[in-house]
Amino acid sequence: MGMVFCRACGKELHETAPACPHCGALQMIPHAPVAAQESADGFFAYAFEPLKKYANFKGRARRKEYWYFFLFLLALNFVIGFMSGLLNSSGLYMLTVLITFGTLIPSIAVGVRRMHDIDRSGWWLLLPIVNLIFICQDSHQGDNRFGASPKYPQ
Questions:
Q1: Cβ atoms < 10 Å from Cβ of 112
Q2: Does residue 35 belong to any structural domain of this protein?
Q3: ∠ at Cα 107 (67, 81), nearest 5°?
Q4: Which of 11, 83, 87, 90 suits 38 as a labelling partner, its CA being 20 to 30 A distant?
């Protein structure tokens, strides 16, 4: 058992203290509802999650994880492409190509995990229009054959 610092006032307190004795700020939320957990997670937490799970094709991915990653890559490529055109630099164009190839495997992996989240096989990614409809669907509630639900924890 050790000492930690308060998240609000920075004063030292015991690590098991539920609230700071100095300022009263809550320190631990052992079983926070899903909405409270989502507000703590930001855009970049979801956008970088597929990079942390680089080639992990097992498990499930929420819609947020998939679309935030897609949006992040789209914005990054747009900014680099715009800068490449503005500066007339082929080096920045090559950076876009490297980013595209470097994120190809995580893009496929997050797509497969997204299909798993709606209780479908990852092979559905090969059908262009159908997979777009499936990717937009809500998560399958509860556990399925691919694992526990990241959106509806039990």
A1: 23
A2: no
A3: 80
A4: 11
Token pair of 141 as six digits = 């509630």
Total-model pTM: 0.70
- Whether the CB-CB separation of 79 and 116 falls below 8 Å is answered with no
Instruction: Give the tens place of pLDDT for each residue, 101-115.
Output: 999 999 999 999 999
Gap between the Cα atoms of 141 and 52, Å rounded: 24
Burial of 110 (0-12, 13-18, 19+ CB in 10 A): buried
Question: Which structural domain range is residue 22 located in?
Answer: 1-30
pLDDT per residue as tens digits for the range 47-106? 899 999 989 999 999 999 999 999 999 999 899 888 888 888 777 878 888 999 999 999
